[in-house]
Specification:
Blueprint (H helix, E strand, L loop, with lengths): L1 E12 L12 E5 L3 E3 L8 H7 L3 H4 L8 H4 L2 E3 L7 E12 L7
Antiparallel strand pairs: 1-2, 1-5, 2-3, 4-5
């Protein structure tokens, strides 16, 4: 099976960054389920919670007319922050489906 590795990056903060994230902060999702945050950095759990439900779909090849194939922006739910993240596909990884849960 083939899945995409993903990178989720803070694209903009239209309000005030209550959680301490800044433009350019990111995490990566690799090999189906590994969340990687750069050393010494953090990622807000509320921003993470907003983007998590979309990641399994973005890891897969979607039909061209699927809205998620064209859309890559996700907003954090904190109305004071108005933090916007971008989901990018970074690599295709071939995995053995029998080794995954």
């Amino acid at each position: 099976m083939e899945l995409f590795d993903l990178k989720v990056t803070v694209e903009r903060v239209e309000g005030r960054s209550v959680c301490g994230l800044a433009v350019g902060d990111y995490f990566e999702l690799t090999h189906s389920s590994r969340v990687v945050i750069p050393p010494g950095r953090h990622f807000c759990i509320y921003a993470l919670a907003a983007v998590l439900p979309l990641l399994p779909a973005k890891q897969r090849r979607l039909p061209d007319d699927d809205w998620l194939e064209a859309e890559s922006l996700v907003a954090c739910p904190d109305p004071d922050e108005r933090l916007v993240m971008r989901i990018e596909r970074t690599a295709v990884v071939r995995l053995d489906a029998g080794e995954l849960t």
